[in-house]
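Work Package 3 (structural annotation) set out to generate three-dimensional models for the target panel prioritized at the project kickoff. During this period the team completed the workflow that converts sequence records into discrete structure tokens, so that structures can be stored uniformly alongside our sequence database. As a representative example, we reproduce one entry of 304 residues exactly as it appears in the project archive.
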Amino acid sequence: MIMASVIEDFFNTSTISAASSVLDRVDGQGSLFDKSRDLLDDVNNHLKTGRNLYGMRSERMDSGKERLISNPCNALVPLLTKLESLVERVPIHSSCHGSGGFTPEKSVRHHVPLRTAFTFDVANAGPSISSEMVAEVYYRALDGFDLSESDRQRVASNFANLSVTYYRDLKKTGLPLGTRLTDRIFQRVFYEIDSRLDEVAEEKGMKYSRWGDDMKITSHHSVGLKDFAGAIDIVEKNGLKVSPGKIFLQQLSDRGVFMLGHVVYPDGSVYHNDVQLKNEMKAPSVNYEIVELIRKNENYEKWI
């Protein structure tokens, strides 16, 4: 739910004028008859009724778990298409393998040969991305438009608030799951994290890549948790948290190393694995208390 103060600002004639001028210059994929000002007015009229921009529905995933999927209201859908094109002006880091022609298998092969793999997930991937993080992406996307600094900040902030939804159980706003715009924003929010992790990994003779919220760092050598723990510092410094139950440290053996639905064997071969094989062979997740103890005692290789 967008806060009343934000809604009032978006009703501001100056803000709407600046926002529509930006969208008119964006190569959107909507109808040629979808004028930007009309799209913004439609959203404003919807908000004036007190209704939310996104509805929620529960969807069961292949793993058996359920997640909340957000459905944008009809008034918002054509506007989101234009915002997708605007967001695409912002670059994605090359280590982001969830786009740019990579497949899960190609992403895994990027790390071969390897001896040790450290993988972890971001906690609450969509909801964890705050409206402030989204606004930063829009602010960068507005570079090159003829906007005053105040207009640029207002437009970025309001576009961000149209791109997030309210999670009642978490009592916070975050990116809605299930929209194409969310995927495009999500990939770009990570640019600084991807850049730094990739840079430090290369300095240490390792390889880094990310697929969605799944982050992978591998080494040609047999190394331990203390060598990788510092990567978590970079993630948390940028306002995100690591999922405590999704941290894995794997040493290459005949059992293989499991990443992104694939298994890597000692001879360098990569095969797609089924869920049953992974459950039977993959090492359990690292005890998060151990990770925190290492970081608390500063007894680890620094990445910052």
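Confidence is low (pLDDT under 50) at residues 1-8, 28-33.
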